[in-house]
Structure prediction request, 239 residues.
Amino acid sequence: MPGHAAETSPRLKARIAGVFYLITIVTGIFGEVFVRGRLIVYGDAAATATNILAHQTLLRLGFALDLIPVYIVVTVLFYDLFKPVNRSLSLLAAFFSLAGCAIGALNSLFQLAPLLVLRGEQYLSIFNAGQQQALALMFLELRAQGFDICLVFFGFYCILIGYLIFRSTFLPKILGVLMAIAGLGYLINSFATFLSPAFAIHLIPYVLAPGLLGEGSLTVWLLAVGVNVQRWKEQESAA
Prediction:
């Protein structure tokens, strides 16, 4: 029984990672499209404030989803899966991912802050309604900037994971190429946002498509196939 469990372990870990990766993608899309996409009207503080006060539960749900450490599970499993390829790079990749997750958790406070500002607590009475609305929108814009900082770390993570996949013998090399392209796109998008926000807006479609293709392809493969256990064991023995 222990030998059988060890034999199926790499494939099981890969499929568990695929499940948690899928959860990450679904919750990320939900947060961007159905929470922030529905509530935030960039450039219109009054409309944004109205949406937030009318859908407070939705805003809190988005905040709660951002705090669930789903991707940490993926990070730990990927570290274990790719140790046979290169332990040092696998550890470095895990560091980038965990750092990004930590920054993302702290950054989520900027999503909850507008609700605290707009609820009109007594200590905020020094601000009039217009000022409170402006502060709320400012916090949301800071949250967007913080998310771009997270993408810097995640971009490096995707590139490293892509390289590890490419060098592995137990996953298709094309998945590694797609992940590396996705990571490069995230880096380009983040630094373009920092340096030229107006130009970065035009890059979004060209960055989003490779990202979804790379991460989506890897997720589907992990769920449907997992890893080649025999080749994983051979690479582990060689390491």
Remarks:
- The chain has one domain: 2-238.
- Residues 2-238 form one domain.
